[in-house]
Amino acid sequence: MQLHLSGNWQLGKAPEGESLCAAIPPGCQQITVISDQLQQWDSSLAAALLQVARQCEQQQITLDTRQTPEALQQLLQLATAIPSYKPQTKTTDSRWFSQLPNTLAAQWKGVRRTLVFVGDISLALGNWLAGRAKTRRQDLFFFIHQVGPRALAIVTLIALLVGMILAYLGSVQLRQLGAQVYVADLVAIGMVREMGALMTAVIMAGRTGAAYAAQLGTMQVNEEIDALKTMGISTMEFLVLPRLLALVFIMPLLCIYADVVGIFGGALVATSMDVNLNQYILQTQGAVDWVDITTGLIKSIFFGILIAIAGCQAGIECGRNSDAVGMAATNAVVRSIVYLVVADAACNILYDKLGI
């Protein structure tokens, strides 16, 4: 079949590409486009021929445009360089074990990326301790202010409620034995050894971890991270390390603050259950020692490191569109909480084996 182009093909005057596609006879194997009588033309001609090209691609018809203007050929070549989008059809395989190697390979790639990221952070931290890192002091102070003072309100609320909940739960059982005074021991040990560090870490995972991922993800979308790499600036030292150090410095302080607020919340409940405030304070002093406080502080430091790793890694590995930024923030929160639960269980098992 020969397609002769003649006259003016300009915007608003040229026929639509659908009419050309409808003129293709069934059983056609090759279409030759001839433009010896073509006069003025613009992008409307290229758009019409692009539809013909797509139709020929679907019907496996050869389209010959060698007898058209060179500029038109270049436009068509540029437009057809990328194949048209075809939605992927997922094939369901009832044999789950056939997908097991691919699943394990994907999980191993994720673990390997995390290990590489941790190694890069370790090298950056070593350079910072040696005084060779490109970490600005004002950035560190900025993130400390962002992580610490701005988080006091939500930490206060959650710690107070957790302390009150522990006191209510303990008083229900202890009241049956006439030992309401031991509510102070329950609240103090629970907050200092476990709930203070863990609840503060969960709050920071949802607040700070997601913020780190969104910040770095937006920089990835705007190609700011690529610009830093082009200038020879380490992203680990310039972007990740200040955020990590800020959490490491602030998490123990927030943990101590949450412990105090939680114990105060337990006192509010205990005093309403015929427990004298002086008795509550004396029981708390006798139940908690420096070993208990140290175990919670060590947990908080590790929790801060894990939150920073999860948030920064999700942001650095973010895609190049706005949807990827939201996914990075979600992944940061999910990873942080998983890391926190696993690390908390590991610390408790270790403390039990050491007799702490």
Describe the protein.
This protein has 356 residues and is mainly α. The protein has twelve helices and three strands; from the N terminus they run E-H-E-H-E-H-H-H-H-H-H-H-H-H-H. Helix 5 packs parallel to helix 9, helix 7 runs antiparallel to helix 12 and helix 11 packs antiparallel against helix 12.
List keywords for this structure.
356 residues; mainly alpha; three-stranded parallel sheet; 71% helix; elongated
Structural class: mainly alpha
Order of helices and strands: EHEHEHHHHHHHHHH
Tally the helices.
12
Overall morphology: elongated
* Mean residue pLDDT: 85
| Helix content range | over 70%
End-to-end C-alpha gap:
88 Å
The biggest sheet, with number of strands, parallel, antiparallel or mixed sense and barrel status, is:
3 strands, parallel
Estimate what percentage of residues fall within beta strands.
5-15%
The value of Rg in angstroms is 33 Å
Tally of extended strands? 3
In the predicted model, the low-confidence regions spanning at least 5 consecutive residues are: none
The side-by-side strand order for the widest beta sheet comes to 1-2-3
Sequence-ordered SSE layout with sheet pairings:
Layout: E1 2-9, H1 17-22, E2 30-41, H2 43-59, E3 62-67, H3 70-79, H4 100-129, H5 137-147, H6 152-177, H7 183-221, H8 224-230, H9 235-271, H10 277-287, H11 290-316, H12 322-354
Parallel strand pairs: 1-2, 2-3
Helix pairs in contact: 2-3, 4-9, 5-9, 6-7, 6-9, 7-9, 7-10, 7-11, 7-12, 9-10, 9-11, 11-12
Structure summarized in a few sentences:
The chain is mainly alpha-helical and 356 residues long. The protein has helices spanning 17-22, 43-59, 70-79, 100-129, 137-147, 152-177, 183-221, 224-230, 235-271, 277-287, 290-316, 322-354, and strands at 2-9, 30-41, 62-67. Strand 2 (30-41), helix 2 (43-59) and strand 3 (62-67) form a beta-alpha-beta unit.
